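User: I'm preparing a small set of examples for a lab meeting where we compare how different chains pack in three dimensions. I only have the primary sequence for this one, and I'd like the structure in token form so I can line it up with the others. Please keep the answer compact; I'll paste it straight into my notes.
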Amino acid sequence: QSESESISSNVRIGLGYKYKRGEWSACLSTFLGYEQNETGEVVVNPEQAETVREIFCDFLSGMSLNEMKKKLEAEGRQTGTGRTTWTKTGLTRILRNVKYMGDVIQGKTYTDDILAKHRSTNHGQAPIYYMQEAIPPIVDRQTFLLAQGELIRRENGLDDGPIPKNQKNDFTYRLRCPHCGHYFNRKNARGKYV
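Assistant: Understood. Below is the structure token output for the 194-residue chain.
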């Protein structure tokens, strides 16, 4: 057991030095949009990158995840694993992945049981390394950040879809109370709108 702990500690220290130098590692064989060239360098796969850009564009234009799923399947677009069936969870993962704007996060999980080799999500128990512009981006930073804002908006209010067009006024679903979480609404109070 002490030998396993020693090896694990050495590996962890080595990975820490590697991440501090800006080096990182990931399995790209099933990662949509990227591949490794002959020298091991990470490069953009043009055909797959087009799918990624379409996902971001459709999402920001107001399409729901369900509509995007159906569209990608109708077009015969492939996922990172080569399947032609898409899931809303998979689309959300793509929209949230910082690699698409060229950044890399290492240390999102850590080994909490060395003998059982059990990994858990890292909530500050171990160092997390964030590397900006570590790989070529597929979407620009502004597009990625807009998508994050739209994801939050949909999660906090309208689950999966754009603001309904049949609302009485343009302020519906726009402002949220930071204390109770309810939406502000517009009322006619004795001849004045409040």
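A couple of notes for your slides: Strands lie at 34-36, 42-44, 104-106, 109-113, 118-121, 129-131, 188-189, 192-193. The first strand starts at residue 34 and ends at 36.

User: Perfect, thanks.
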